[in-house]
Amino acid sequence: MIFPLFSMDKETLLSSLEKVKYPGFSRDIVSFGLVREASFENGVAAVTLELTSSDSTIPAQLKKETEEALSSIDGVEEVQVSVVVKKGQGSSSNQSSSANEGDGVSNRPLPEVKYIVAIASGKGGVGKSTVTVNLACAFEKLLRENNESFDGVGIMDCDVYGPSVPLLIGASERPEVIGDNLIQPVENFGVKVISMGLLVDEEAPVVWRGPMVMKTIQQFASNVSWGKLDLMLIDLPPGTGDAQLSLAQTLPLNGAVIVTTPQKAAVDVARRGARMFEKVSVPLLGVVENMSFLADEETGTKRYIFGKGGGPATAEALETPFLGEIALDERIRLGGDNGIPVVVSNADGPSAKSIQKIAEKLWATLTAD
Ligand SMILES: Nc1ncnc2c1ncn2[C@@H]1O[C@H](COP(=O)(O)OP(=O)(O)O)[C@@H](O)[C@H]1O
Ligand SMILES: [Mg+2]
């Protein structure tokens, strides 16, 4: 953001821009980082917004609201608002951008990462981070065994307030600094990881506001030496809205997977979360149902203690594939507590197998077109 202004003007301008909310969200365009340029000189207030959206009504609506907000500032005689709409994301692969390397045109983040997939959920505690970590390990195995030119799998933990990926995957060392503004991701079970949990002390309070989240994600993309990867999974914070939008504006996502639980009540929450992705033109890749049933070790009988059908119902409502169910399994919890994902510690067990199957199905969806 560039503010070539005297500070009083800058504050006036900022505070009026902060009144403009992104349609459908409670957050404003400043904290979302959509303001690319703003100036206020000789009575002319000029603002450039940059956003990603497939909804063609949004740029026009934002332009109108921004113009109104600026017109109400004392001393403003003329208002110039331009809205730059970035190309819709979620193309089948962003690898093509690496062809532009060095020409100074493409500054798309993470050009060496073939596929970037966000793992999301409507609410916390559904096992999203557990699913992310286990899926990453499942993909590491799947792609290493099946791709001749396997490059690797990574996890970017974007839950900056409550990062849990390091614990779940048993990573605790500090990322090595390898150059000016460049750090090395930490690796465990062949999966590269970067997380706020690796960068700040566990005890330190992580008190950041929205704009900082976006800045952090940008740094996770630009200042981490990921190298070539076939797939990067993004663990999002729980909830729907701001983080998802910020992320979609920052990373070239190929799509999002929604993790839900079987309860009927979870369907609506997951649906709301999914709509946020649609607003920023990130395609849905499917729904995973976690904690689906409790299996009797001896008989194999499944008890659907949280009810049945929430996952498939969510998938149907969102018109996206149902990728599969994962049992409520003590070994999954223990795997998380011990930092050895069940896909690794109990690779032949039923839970590992169902996660492995989900990875296969997701890869097929991702690489379909
Ligand atoms: N399928 C499962 N079976 C048993 N425990 C699970 C399962 N999935 C997640 N858990 C446990 O539930 C808790 C919350 O999971 P977590 O992945 O941190 O959720 P979220 O990221 O959605 O907040 C953790 O203790 C985790 O070990
Ligand atoms: Mg989590």
Quick summary:
The protein is an alpha/beta fold and about 375 residues long. It is about 35% helix and about 20% strand.
Question: What would you note in describing this structure?
Answer:
The chain has 369 residues and is α/β, with parallel strands linked by helices. The protein is built from twelve helices and 15 strands. The strands form four sheets. It has an eight-stranded mixed beta sheet, with helices on both faces. A hairpin with a 2-residue loop joins strand 1 and strand 2 (44-52). Helix 8 runs parallel beside helix 9. The longest helix has 19 residues, at 128-146. Mean pLDDT is 84; it is low at 1-8 and 88-106. The structure holds adenosine-5'-diphosphate and magnesium ion (MG). The site of adenosine-5'-diphosphate has 18 residues, from helix 3 and helix 10.
Main traits of this protein?
alpha/beta, GMP Synthetase, Chain A, domain 3, Rossmann fold, 2 domains, 3-stranded mixed beta sheet, 22% strand, binds magnesium ion
